[in-house]
# Entry
Amino acid sequence: MKLEPIQNQATIETERFDLRPLRKSDLGLIEMHGKDERVARMTRSIPHPLPPGVSEGFIARALDPERTEDVWAIDGTRSDLPEVMGLIALERMDRNQSEIGYWVAPAFWNTGIASDAVRALVEANPLGSDTMFASVFQDNPASAKVLTNCGFEYIGDAESYSVARDSTVRTWTYLRKMDR
# Structure
């Protein structure tokens, strides 16, 4: 199976921020937040400590026309907030499905930014997915609440490898059927 690349990535506007495609100039803020162990430990793919070049490689992959994942910066400049308060992504899967992933910088935890970003991405459904999936580590109930607040339903437990933890971590998996 070959997934067709999507070269154009829309900007999604909300009241407080925009979800916009990454730019090379986002490197400094992505690296600053990615170096924070609290952020890295709640993701599958961010190593801790963050080695040199990882953030540059991540941005290069996000800008590649052959990518299988679209990544948006949660850009707060419309509200006099930082250009990168976090990231949110949709990875293309087979059968017109996608997997959503996100992280928010600790300074913006418990502010509703994550819920607003997930809600905006779900409502926009930029890949035209029939179904969206997400999983969160079981020691991150705040992220699970974000998903349930955005209409995702719990479908079961699983495990996922965390690079920062160098171990397999128990997860909760969620699904959302999309209205089309």
User: Anything to note?
Assistant: The radius of gyration is 15 Å. Residues 62 and 161 are 21 Å apart (CA to CA). The domain at 12-128 is CATH 3.40.630.30 (Aminopeptidase). Helices lie at 27-34, 37-40, 54-63, 113-124, 141-149.
